[in-house]
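Q: Start with the shorter request: fold the first protein.
A: Done. Sequence, then structure:
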Amino acid sequence: MSKSKILVVGGTGYIGKRIVKASLAQGHPTYILMRREIGFDIEKVQMLLSFKKQGARLVEGSFSDHQSLVDAVKQVDVVICTISGVLYRSHNILLQLKLIDAIKEAGNIKRFLPSEFGMDLSRMGHALDLGQETFDKMNIRKAIEEAGIPYTYISANCLGSYFVRNLSQLDSLMPPKDRVYIYGDGNRKGMM
């Protein structure tokens, strides 16, 4: 049985670079969308060249050029999107709507894995302050399902590295120097 051809969108990011490495290690023909928007970010360019040396194929494309996305998608069977959905970084989660349009037009994708690596929002509505990120991800899910694209959502819940460094203080990226906020009444032993 032949291996799936995989396109990774966001292949130089925190999760994306790990997905690329795993795909290559498993022997999948691995394509990385090389977006013009990375500009002269030397670290990302070096990472892309390193992946190319390992056998990845670099495919030029841009979210501002619909046809380039369609052309990239037509080369593969599976699309894995790992663009950032973190509000304090580059909140690009809604760019996936353009990718969904390209996947729908291409018509060849067997599986789409959107950038959905946080909490399972469909199960957490009662526990979340429904902020903009929540609505954005739900709009992405709705668009995928309405387009009839085969999909898999990966809900890894929270990524510890985002919370350990600042002691779970949601208003800061750095550890607090003078106080720590305790959420709830402070009596919870654990949360699942």
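Q: Next, the second protein, separately.
A: Sequence, then structure:
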Amino acid sequence: MTRKRVFVADADGTPYAVTVDVGDDDDDSDTPSAVRTCCVSMGRYFARILCALIVPPLRAIAIILMWPIQLLVATFTPKVARALPVELSDRWWWGSRGGGCDATGLKQARAIKAISFVAVRCLPRCFQEYLDRRAVAKAIATGKPAGSMLSMVDEYNALSKAPTIAAGMKALGMKRLDEWFWRPNEISRTPNSKQLTHPMLRPVQYVPIPTHPFTDPTTFPWVARIESQYLVVKEELQAVLRSNRGWAEPLLPDFMGNAFRSAKKGKTVGASSSPPPPADGAAAAAPAPEPAGSDSNGDDDDDDDDVTVGDWQQLMFNTPLGTSIDENKEAMPKTWELLKSIPGFVDNNFAMISSLRPGGRIAPHVGHTNLVTRLHLAIDVPEPSKSAIRVGNDVRTWEEGKVLLLNDAFDHEVWTFGTKNRTVLFADIWNPSLTAEDIAALKPHWDAQKNTLGVMAASYEQHAKKQGREAGGGANWYVA
């Protein structure tokens, strides 16, 4: 029984308090309500368990049954119908030095496009995540370089948050940037694209912004200051040459980037063994993950007949995947500070001293992205008329102490015909077509994309340091 105090009024309206008994000790009127509440709670609990056990398998079965339909719907669309004949006839493949790929390169190019098409347009997200996790785990377990390709692609697509890139995508009819992976030939030949595309503009990661083979350096007020400091860089270079430390030849990734082929006799390293330990002392960095050789992306030529082993020597400050080589920065501190003073300098991109020996050639290839512009500061060019670089359809040379701005996203190649080394300092700055708003929007995703490949970046760095210990070229490799 419950006792409650209530207020009542008498006949005159005067209130007074009284205590009353509510209910009875043997009243069990609340029992059905309590039992009902308990039953409902238990029912909900068991329902959650049942859903956790049954729903995921049912969902997986539904996805598997629906995937063929999704594949058909994704395949038989006007966009795919337009792209299919264009891409089947495309003879461009990054692993075969640009546009002249052989039969093997053509098969690889078609295979990559087919895989990209299925992965980008047809696979459910949950399957993509599952396959990505398995690939990373397997690579790490076998000692191969590993990175989350799905996360990298997500960050690549997120670059579209930059207004200039978003406007370019609209002009080209692109809904996602990763469409570039499966229909690059069609996109690169879009008519009336206002300098957004070019048949020879075929980087690994393309963004639709105005891109030119060469850019006039005089349009940048900071260029004169950089050029005035070239003797400082040359003095540090000579000190490094005297010590003959930190130099290395490029490494070449294999078809899927799971091993590195040394420039020496095609030897493969790192495919089935754990990465070598870091080197003591000065170290060189690794090449970019693009398969073709490059004076701008860190890869040597695929054909040993095109570049004599030892012709191209590199002293890197950053690897192409963003790993810092602190030993080389400490060896040339003024040079690194000079680079950091450049407005728009991309401090986690490939940066190095590149030296090509007499008679050396770097075969046609493309770089990683047109999001950046490559800066060359000519440090030692004693024979400017006997060295040349072709970018797209334009051919230029270097003038000692002067800056050359180019975009290595175009097909390009390098030659030296003289009797002395040609040496340049190079680094990346943001593409001049990007605004401050664009850079603020895309930089977090650009940095995150580098981070998604952390294990791969470390593996490149370690293999490059090993290569640096073995390469060297001897004390007389540099011909001044």
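Q: Describe the second briefly.
A: DSSP finds 13 helices and 15 strands in the chain. Residues 31-75 form the longest helix (45 residues).
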